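Sequence design from tokenized structure. All designs in this work follow the same two-part layout: the structure record, then the generated sequence. An example of the structure record is given first.
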């Protein structure tokens, strides 16, 4: 059963009526409901387009967090052939919040890394809600270095509220692990295409997103802290999260205008969760377009462009 967000109630009511008509028809088998269903479907589609054409930053935050939104594992299973997962940081443990391995993207051998939130209670606990610990970022760094050794482009898919903030993570060097992962991104002698597919939260996202090209799904968000966290700090009240989301410029549209991401990848009307396969096909095309011109560049050119890209952001006064 589809999960509706609060602002989608008008659509939920219309689609609920459609479902009710279909159930009644199945029960009696004598009703002619085609015309009525067509009218209601057209009305629901129009309502959905109207709603999604003017989403607020807070509403986009809710869409980015939607439980049915495609996660990293679904992206990988759809876009990557012959995927072989690689586990562990060779120092402490394997962190299930970060998935990584080798595979083929439209014929091109690549290394893939993604943050995985999970789809239900069991998998969310297994993947720690996508919040990686130091061993996760050290695994990511190991895979990036492996990619450089074998001249394999790197594709990353980011969906995390941020790095895990627990005391055990701090004790094992969380900040250092994130910094080293960012350093590995900047030092990689191969193309690195990063995509924010849901939430891009704080250093936990930047650790995998310091790429030659940064893509962002239309209704994803990317920020230094969650809107709730920002509201708790500035207003001492998480209820102010919608105000914080507006002020923080978390949306893909704001970030593209500010030059912090390179391309916005369109989503189906109603968000990627309404038609995951269509959304991922569009994403695959965007990744292919971004990767193609980078394959002919030398390792030094790739590293220089990547470093200059992020250093320039710090000089614009944004």
């Amino acid at each position: 059963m589809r999960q509706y967000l609060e602002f989608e109630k008008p659509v939920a009511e219309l689609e609920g009526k459609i479902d009710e008509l279909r159930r009644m028809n199945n029960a009696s088998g004598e009703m002619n409901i085609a015309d009525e269903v067509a009218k209601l479907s057209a009305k629901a589609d129009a309502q959905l387009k109207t709603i999604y054409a003017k989403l607020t930053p807070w509403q986009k935050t809710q869409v980015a967090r939607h439980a049915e939104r495609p996660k990293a594992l679904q992206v990988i299973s759809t876009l990557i052939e012959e995927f072989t997962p690689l586990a562990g940081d060779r120092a402490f443990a394997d962190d299930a919040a970060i998935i990584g391995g080798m595979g083929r993207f439209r014929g091109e051998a690549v290394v893939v890394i993604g943050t995985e939130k999970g789809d239900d209670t069991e998998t969310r606990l297994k993947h720690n809600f996508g919040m990686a610990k130091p061993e996760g970022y050290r695994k990511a760094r190991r895979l990036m270095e492996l990619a450089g050794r074998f001249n394999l482009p790197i594709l990353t898919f980011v969906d995390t509220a941020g790095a895990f903030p627990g005391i055990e993570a701090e004790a094992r060097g969380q900040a250092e692990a994130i910094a080293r992962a960012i350093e590995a991104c900047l030092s990689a002698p191969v193309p690195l295409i990063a995509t924010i597919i849901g939430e891009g939260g704080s250093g936990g996202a930047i650790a995998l997103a310091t790429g030659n090209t940064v893509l962002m799904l239309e209704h994803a968000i990317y920020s230094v802290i969650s809107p709730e966290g920002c509201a708790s700090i500035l207003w001492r009240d998480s209820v102010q999260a919608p105000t914080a989301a507006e002020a923080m410029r978390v949306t893909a549209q704001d970030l593209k205008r500010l030059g912090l991401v390179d391309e916005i990848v369109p989503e189906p009307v109603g968000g990627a969760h309404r038609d995951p396969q269509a959304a991922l096909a569009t994403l695959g095309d965007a990744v292919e377009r971004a990767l193609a011109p980078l394959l002919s560049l030398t390792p030094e050119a790739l590293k220089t462009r990547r470093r200059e890209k992020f250093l320039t952001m710090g000089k614009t006064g944004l």
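Strands lie at 80-85, 98-105, 108-115, 154-160, 192-201, 213-217, 221-223, 263-265. We note this feature because it recurs in several other targets discussed in the main text.
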